[in-house]
Amino acid sequence: MTGVPRITLLHSRGGSCLLSRRMESGKGALRGPSVIARNRGSVMDKIPMTRDGHAKLEAELKQLKSVERPAIIKAIAEAREHGDLSENAEYHAAREKQSFIEGRIKELEGVLGLAEVIDPKTLSGSIKFGATVTVADEDTDEEKTWQIVGEHEADIEKGLLNIKSPIARALIGKDEGDSVEVRTPGGERSYEILKIDYT
């Protein structure tokens, strides 16, 4: 019947559903808004990561599963043999370590399962994820070099800058010769971008 609304519920993979309000017309045209309702947690954001960072996390996961996990299981079994567990310090220490190992394994599996590996060598142009950037402090002329990487591979001591950090956010989209101002715990800092490298 023309002008009569019809609600159609369509299920899709991952528990998502498409709820559409259709207004029938003589030509079968669709009118009115469509609403997409997704279950919470069914759509997860990908985690950007460099090849090196991804390889390091995979190596850590392998070490935990093949070496650390069996070793702590053995240590717990040996501690049990010492008698009363309520006063067995070795047993409780081993159980705490086991809890840490299992938690880290779960965390790494989750991160690697959502990883979007990006090869910086395929990129060029203004600063983006994966870029290695050399800057000069405009007050002290001190030069620093950072590579912008994912949060799970970041290590500022090694020059690996978290893409979510204030400095990285200020650098993204900029070009050589540009200046950026960054608010740090020590106050405002200004940097001139000297070089952008993707090799």
Structural features, described:
- It is a single chain.
- The chain is of the alpha+beta class.
- The chain folds into three domains: 5-37, no CATH class; 47-118, Orthogonal Bundle (Helix Hairpins); 120-197, Chitinase A, domain 3 (Roll), CATH 3.10.50.
- Helices cover 31% and strands 30% of the residues.
- It is built from three helices and ten strands.
- It has helices spanning 51-80, 89-113, 166-171, and strands at 5-11, 17-23, 34-37, 47-50, 115-118, 132-137, 143-149, 160-162, 179-184, 187-197.
- The strands form three sheets. Strands 8-7-6-10-9 form a five-stranded mixed beta sheet. Strands 1-2-3 form a three-stranded antiparallel beta sheet, with no helix packed on it.
- Helix 1 packs antiparallel against helix 2.
- The model is unreliable at 1-42 (pLDDT under 50).
Can you count the helices?
3
- Major sheet: arrangement of strands: 8-7-6-10-9
Per DSSP E runs of 2 or more residues, the count of β-strands stands at 10
Highest CATH level, the class of the largest domain: Alpha Beta
Could you provide a short overview of the structure?
The protein is of the alpha+beta class. 31% of the residues lie in helices and 30% in strands. The chain has 3 domains: 5-37, no CATH class; 47-118, Helix Hairpins; 120-197, Transcription elongation factor, GreA/GreB, C-terminal domain (Chitinase A, domain 3).
